[in-house]
Design goal:
Layout lengths: L7 E8 L2 E8 L3 E5 L10 H10 L17 E5 L4 H5 L5 H11 L7 E5 L9 H5 L1 H6 L2 E4 L8 E6 L5 E5 H4 L3 E7 L2 E2 L3 E2 L13 H8 L16 H12 L2 E9 L5 E7 L1 H16 E2 L4 E6 L9 H5 L2 H8 E10 L21 H5 L3 H9 L5 H16 L1 E5 L5 H7 L3 E3 L2 H12 L5 E4 L9 E2 L4
Parallel strand pairs: 3-19, 4-5, 4-9, 5-6, 9-12, 14-20, 15-16, 15-19, 16-17, 17-18
Antiparallel strand pairs: 1-2, 7-8, 10-11, 12-13
Amino acid sequence: MAISIPTTKTYQVPWNEAEIEISVPADSVTAEIRFTDLPPVPDSAAALLRAMDEPIGRPPLADLVWPGAKVALLTGDRMTDLMLGSRDGLGHVILDYLNRAGVRDRDVTLVYACGTHPHRNADEKIGPRLINRVGRYVKHLSTDDDQLSFVGYTTRGNAVWLNRAVVEADVVIGVGEISPNTHGGWCGGGKMIVPGVAGQATVEHNHRWLMRSETPLGLADGNPLRLDMEEGADLGRLAFKIDVLVNSDQQIVAVYSGDFRKEHRAALDVARQIWMTKLDPVDVAIYSPGDGRERYLENSLFITLDSAELATKPDGVIILIASAAGGYAPAGGGWPYNAHQTSQELMKQSSPEIARAMIESRGNLRSASMVFAAKRVLEQRKVFLVCEGIEPGEAKALGFAGCFRSFDAALAEAWALKGRAASIATCFPRGIQWRIMPWREG
């Protein structure tokens, strides 16, 4: 009588600038969360021109501008700065298009719409050729009140201050990229205005909407944080939005444009196919935060835990494989919080305590919101950490249910809780794929 030998699936997982191999029973793996690479458009300039001439819910861009119009052209700090500038030169395609409609280069203000982020080599990414072509180049700084003008209130009680260069423009055009995001469910759409060119107080109030019972990752229409952003974009008079979808090589696979709500929702049909995987929630989700992120624990938490929560049943177990070889965060780095408390110390508090800190604005609220999102998952799921750079006592203080030096030990503990017949989902992104997640509608 033949003896049946259980087969295993093996995966190469990033680990401290190298890889480790892990194995799980093949029959237990019911889903592998993956990024779907679509082919790049044959001609990105032609695709962009077509999008500007054939928008969704708006007239062609040429019909929205006029000779002498003052135009604010906004780019985000996630890929589109390189696409417009030093890498692909698509900013010149837009400027040439505007020139043909009668808009002079000197009447265009190029705005680096980075929200509360640092400027991250903006000049280098956009490049001198594009910067020197436009009439003015502005790098948004959310804390500089001299840059800001008050434009009104949202129905959700947010007071909106926006960059004056945008407020004073006749026509506001934004160029962004769409991928899942904890803040607003997705990048793209009206997010170009809030937080893109908003004052810090506006961004912080918006980000407090993260304190909700339902995870907003991948949720658009039912997401109050997103809806508040979009009301802010109305107040900012975002007239025309261009959003791109990309593959894992950061090549454009599709371009959407027009009304910032309508083009964004239309793009989500394809964005879900790229970034999401359909699955039934499992007993055990095994996740890596991806290469380039896993060396520090703090980087490993953002979005990764939210995705893993969606992949698991309410009583499920998450195994996070991150070497954390560099520790919790780089020395002197990590998410800034305040002069008296680090984000690592904040993580050791309960989610209600972190929520109180957010309400009372005790520190950098963007950092606090990311800590809150991670801590909420740590409280709602059993999360096992497989690492080499965090001590078990520290991991427990941060909220992990267990800390292991080997994956096999973590899996054995998960089996002890869920049984050897437990269903398993895996998620091992590489590069920009680290935002991949289970499917969700809305």
